[in-house]
# Entry
Amino acid sequence: MAKQIKVIYILGGGHSGSTLLDKILSTNPAIVSGGEISFYCIYRDKVEHPKINRLTRHRCSCQKDLEKCPYWGKIVTADNGRLKIKKNYTLGENFNVIVELYRRKKIKKHEVTNSNYDLFKLMLDVKPAQYILDSSKDPRRLLDLYHDPRIKLFVIHLIRDGRSYAYSYQKPVRKKIGVKQYCYLRSLVEWIIINTIAIRQIKKLDAPAVTINYETFCRQPNQEIKKIEKLTNLKFDVNKHNPEHHSISGNYKTLEMNKPIKLVEKWKNKTPWPKKLMGTIILFPFRGWLDK
Ligand SMILES: [Zn+2]
# Structure
């Protein structure tokens, strides 16, 4: 069998603080991070996507287009348009994911294409490391990777307060930068679905995993990072941010920031009280997932 590639996968909803975590983890030279690798083909082929905003377009976090980036440029050249990394899933495929996860039987590994493995291999050719960090977050992608016996997964389920998640998806600034704005209630429901699936996956997949609450992480980074140190057998310095970071997608503001970790909870002041109350009531059954 081909050599196994170790992949640390950040799982969870969008806007959950994965960029910050990605930046901290990739300071360790044993890790090479690609950011949200599920967007690779969208960035490479400059395809329009509802999540690509007007400010960052299809640029790497180093502000260059992929083909001009010192890291991704080499990968794009070697790939030569051959790889097909999946980003969009049909309704039927989504349904199959749910069936696969909720069936009593063990998940049977099925045949997969070589694209994900080959992309990881190219990433390691350009920058050799012990682990690849993939912060795509999408549970469906995690399942795709799981089916490849050549990929060994280490999962970090990152979870942020659902009210903060819903607040960030309905901000008016989203419209200005050209990405879709979502209604508060819809985002709350989406948050419940994504994290329910993520928790189910952790139970069902035969892969080591840890759960990190974003708010707890920001309050006690030194404490929380220990879970990831145990998972990966590596050491991290939460005060060190990777100066040379070549990440696809992700929150650019976080990437530019080079200050100590601070918990910003704008949603607490900026969400009108009836909405906040609604959020608190709807999320009440899931309070165990939140910061304690
Ligand atoms: Zn770059």
About this structure: Residues 184-204 form the longest helix (21 residues). The chain has one domain: 5-289. The pocket of zinc ion is lined by residues 60, 62, 64, 69, 71-72, 246 (CB under 6 Å). The mean pLDDT is 88.
